[in-house]
């Protein structure tokens, strides 16, 4: 309406001289030039507004939550990070971007029949090194790897979104989408990594069902591996706050219910490998599951300072099934029937403490993990014409279902973010994950090479933007083991204290499209 009114006003201004007196040629030319300039200005404004609408629609169609979600939003704009879009349509949360994303972004999105396509391709040099001693053998694995992910998103109406992601990665390692450059010239698998429907009847409420990222995932390499996905359900209810305590602007109440197994065993035979995991012969074997309630709050501490708080509880049911699925004896019972194919080996085992040498049972009788996180963030300082956002992260976790070795800690600091060519990012993190603190099969396998828990790790990262769609990422982890096995108290760890430090170096080129 403003555009139409402005054009009519300009046309009326041209007609005034004609009604009053005969204008000269110079006057007509000047009026025509002013009119053309005004039309050009209005056209630019309309195009800019149309581009903003398309970018917002693309971000909302992804149906991503601010807490993590998928990378289907990589193709939004440099100022609209997928991490800053809540699951509910019509509720963009662009107060500040999450510098943890560390992914180049593009404005180009391809749409076919209302389906939006996006993806990324990553080339990685991966080196894991450790010298041998009397406590642990040598490790020398230098390899090339790649990852390809393709996202498809469709908004059915204002309430329903559907998302799918296909990805590379071996079927028996759920915490990575990387594919080794190996296997001679055999074709590599490309399978469903994510698939969900998102229902958001109100801008402050959403529900999701299918295969999805964890509802509290924050890409900190602390609790969850970045590539972990769960089957099940999750909900988010957002409560806006006009003037909350400590400058809080909103509180989100989140919950996830994830189904981890379906043994389908009404009467357990004595010969089943589940007996070694503590299940009683002659009884029904119930499924393993994760229930994850908690809240996320964010607010501002002035014009450029922001902060956020996360608090949640992870309640695992029958966690020994997770450990058993990591053993040669257990995966044919717990994994193969669900996939409909026979894997060549178990899912990855990332070394928690167990109570038996055969590693069929966790040492911790329960996994009931209480997690608290706090981030303080500054929007950024200008350095040679470039904005350098910064944040400080502190996270604590305790498995109250274990009596010892049950704590985990992360302290991290970040400066910079990759938004365009020439941008840089620096990150340092220090992590401690005791042997019974977290579920090792679900936590990060780069931080914990060969042992997802029972570790203390220094992590250093440097990223450089090479183009709008490309960045160069470099990560170094120096890992030390925390505890040794103690057979006298039935405590066994796969990689004990006294082993030489493990070095993990990742250098990768990340393309987005």
Question: Would you kindly provide a written description of the structure presented here, covering whatever features stand out?
Answer:
By secondary structure, the protein is mainly beta. The protein has two domains: 2-46; 62-512, Porin (Beta Barrel), CATH 2.40.160.10. The protein has five helices and 18 strands. The chain has a 16-stranded antiparallel β-barrel. A hairpin with a 2-residue loop joins strand 6 (190-202) and strand 7. Helix 1 runs antiparallel to helix 2. It is globular and about 105 Å long. The two termini are 36 Å apart.
Question: What does the average pLDDT come to?
Answer: 84
- Total individual domains: 2
| Helix amount | 10-25%
State the assembly state of the protein chains. single chain
Number of strands: 18
Kindly name the structural category: mainly beta
Task: Summarize this structure as a short list of keywords or feature phrases.
513 residues, mainly beta, Porin, 2 domains, 16-stranded antiparallel beta barrel, 5 helices, 13% helix, globular, disordered N terminus
Question: Nutshell version of this structure?
Answer:
By secondary structure, the protein is mainly beta. It has helices at residues 2-20, 25-61, 320-324, 331-334, 336-339, and strands spanning 110-112, 115-130, 139-155, 160-168, 179-180, 190-202, 205-212, 230-240, 248-259, 289-300, 305-317, 368-383, 386-399, 407-416, 424-433, 455-467, 470-481, 502-512.
What order do the helices and strands come in, and which of them pair?
Elements: H1 2-20, H2 25-61, E1 110-112, E2 115-130, E3 139-155, E4 160-168, E5 179-180, E6 190-202, E7 205-212, E8 230-240, E9 248-259, E10 289-300, E11 305-317, H3 320-324, H4 331-334, H5 336-339, E12 368-383, E13 386-399, E14 407-416, E15 424-433, E16 455-467, E17 470-481, E18 502-512
Antiparallel strand pairs: 1-2, 2-3, 2-18, 3-4, 3-5, 4-6, 6-7, 7-8, 8-9, 9-10, 10-11, 11-12, 12-13, 13-14, 14-15, 15-16, 16-17, 17-18
